[in-house]
């Protein structure tokens, strides 16, 4: 009789545990923002990085042709206008993807990246001024990438001392090789 009683008790505990976990799993408080899964966020972040790189590359090429070839490039540039609109739409769509599943610091960095990319003056005659604008875009990409690394826990946390030590050692070795 004790064998049957303990089996029934164990089944009851398992059943109550699964019911309780199901109830807790369905608990969704109102007003609490939900983040996407880590994989979803990584895909959205990568999509924005790809879109910003494509948009930046197109803008850089467009401005270079306009500055160097002048009016002779107008027909070529006019033919690429639909591609410019496509890259802009892709960039905005990627930003919305980050807004949908990203964290607040990543969203802020993404908006700064899109703003810096959008602020490129394609008709800029001064090559130095356009280069400074391009450097701002590259810096915004680096800030966004670092925010993504922190959000996705790719960067070493403050308590991961050995990992941080190995990372610093690797970076020093890499800098020594470049020099």
Helix content: over 70%
CA-to-CA gap between the ends? Answer: 80 Å
Alpha plus pi helix count:
7
Biggest beta sheet summary: none
Number of strands: 0
Rg result: 26 Å
Instruction: List segments where confidence is low: pLDDT < 50 over at least 5 consecutive residues.
Output: none
Overall SS class: mainly alpha
Q: What's the average pLDDT?
A: 79
Order of helices and strands: HHHHHHH
Overall shape: flat
Estimate the strand proportion: under 5%
Can you summarize this structure?
This protein has 179 residues and is mainly alpha-helical. The chain is built from 7 helices and no strands.
Entry keywords:
79% helix; mainly alpha; single chain; flat; 179 residues
Written account of the structure:
With 179 residues, the chain is an all-alpha fold. It has helices at 2-25, 38-69, 74-79, 81-101, 104-118, 127-151, 161-178.
SSE diagram, text form:
Layout: H1 2-25, H2 38-69, H3 74-79, H4 81-101, H5 104-118, H6 127-151, H7 161-178
Helix pairs in contact: 2-4, 2-5, 2-6, 4-5, 5-6
């Amino acid at each position: 009789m004790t064998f049957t009683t303990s089996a029934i008790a164990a089944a009851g505990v398992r059943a109550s545990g699964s019911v309780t976990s199901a109830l807790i799993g369905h608990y969704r408080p109102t007003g609490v923002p939900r983040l996407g899964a880590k994989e979803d966020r990584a895909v959205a972040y990568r999509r924005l990085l790809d879109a910003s790189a494509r948009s930046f590359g197109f803008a850089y090429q467009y401005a270079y042709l306009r500055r160097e070839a002048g009016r002779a490039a107008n027909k070529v540039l006019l033919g690429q206008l639909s591609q410019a609109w496509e890259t802009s739409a892709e960039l905005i769509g990627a930003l919305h993807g980050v807004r949908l599943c990203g964290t607040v610091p990543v969203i802020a960095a993404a908006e700064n990246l899109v703003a810096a990319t959008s602020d490129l003056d394609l008709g800029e005659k001064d090559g130095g001024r356009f280069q400074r604008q391009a450097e701002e875009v590259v810096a915004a990409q680096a800030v966004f990438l670092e925010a993504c690394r922190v959000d996705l826990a790719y960067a070493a946390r403050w308590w991961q001392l050995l990992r941080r030590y190995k990372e610093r050692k690797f970076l020093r070795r890499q800098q020594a090789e470049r020099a």
